[in-house]
Design brief:
By secondary structure, the protein is of the alpha/beta class. About 35% of the residues lie in helices and about 15% in strands. It binds flavin mononucleotide and iron/sulfur cluster.
Amino acid sequence: MTSVTAGSALAPPPGPAAGGELPRLLPPAGRAAGLAAHLGRHGPVPYRGRARALIGDLRAAGLTGRGGAAFPVHRKLEAVAAARPGRAIVAGNGAEGEPASHKDEALLHGAPHLVLDGLQLAAEAVGASRAILYVRRDVRARTRLDAQLPPRRARGLDRVPVELVSAPARFLAGEESALASLVSGGAAVPRFTPPRVFARGVDGRPTLVQNVETLAHLALIARYGAGWFRRLGEPEEPGTMLCTLHQADGSVTVAEAAIGTPLTALLDLDLSRVSAVLAGGYHGAWIPAGRAAGLTLSNAALRPLGAFTGAGVLAALPADRCGLAETARVARYLALESAGQCGPCRSGLPSIAAAMGDLAGLAGAGGRGGGRGPDPRALAHLTRWAGLVEGRGACHHPDGTVRFLRSALRVFDGEVREHQHGRCGARSGRPFLPVPAGPSTDEDWS
Ligand SMILES: Cc1cc2nc3c(=O)[nH]c(=O)nc-3n(C[C@H](O)[C@H](O)[C@H](O)COP(=O)(O)O)c2cc1C
Ligand code: SF4
């Protein structure tokens, strides 16, 4: 059983107004901030009084999306702001479909008003007339958020009414076209693009979709400015980000860290206990622990190794587990999570997951397992099929899955050879990476 701690494990307060130290987003003591505490710490929503006015500050701040792709925020706002006034829609994406991520949950619990302020400021910046907060389906979290809205309305903080929409607990439900489809009355499955949602999203209207953490940063930049935002982080990747940290001892915490922080300050990377680090979640990549120990939390450091910061998931694989078995379990989950709309997902991912299961010798992972010995063709199948699905899906799901699998073949190449001879050096079969209990059903898409 793991626990999630909201709060910075890295550095103490004070907060933004006092000097830019951590934590910026999460409440200092890790306690949920109600409206009075939020207003006391940050003051009222700093509306600019006209559309687009905030966009220059966001460009100067260099804020990028924290939902995974690190796309420059000002560019999306500019695209949506070009729509006819009042036609645009803004959506805060808190679906957090990635099972290993808890940072949006921690943020929405700890600092919901920062997210709601960001939603309003983004709505003003693009001239939107509708604001949606899309959050993982969880009755308690939803009830808590519902209770935050009336006091804001009563104080006149929200100029655009906020609609709360529940996202199904599916890996793909947070993909932006899946969000647009669900809010428009359809199923939460990705759709073929283009047009991108910023051009034609919810109900066919231009829709700005930003991760909830991105909106919280936006709300702070609107208050404290681009220079303040850049006081932490790297010149090319400024600011902080929330990370979900899975330590090898099984503990899970959410921490806010400056971009550029050494990974050793976030994860215990004792090489006698950790064999590899997963960076960027289930569409990310494995890195050998020895290499990870010399890296920082930044795309500049991670990309040469095929990984990226993504939505901030970092996991230290215990040295007694099998990296191939871990990868095979996740691959099976990812294959089952596909919406099955396109060929690469319908037939490609299940076959790839089955081959990975065969290689890992994992019973029940789509592979033969169960003492039947390794399939000598598994690696060849895996490599060939991975090449066939890449770049062929309507969304990024097959590519992300293949990146994750390829990194496992690279990083665990010694284990691959052992497994091909029917051997596995793992001392524990206990699963490490979280995978929801399945199987999922069709109606979970709505
Ligand atoms: C398969 C898939 C799943 C995604 N899930 C999420 C999610 O759960 N939450 C999220 O904010 N973004 C998710 N995204 C990214 C969104 O499509 C979108 O880029 C993001 O919400 C934009 O916000 P940002 O620019 O602030 O990061 C996902 C993308 C893909 C391809
Ligand atoms: S690539 Fe896969 S997940 Fe993406 S839309 Fe097609 S079937 Fe769905």
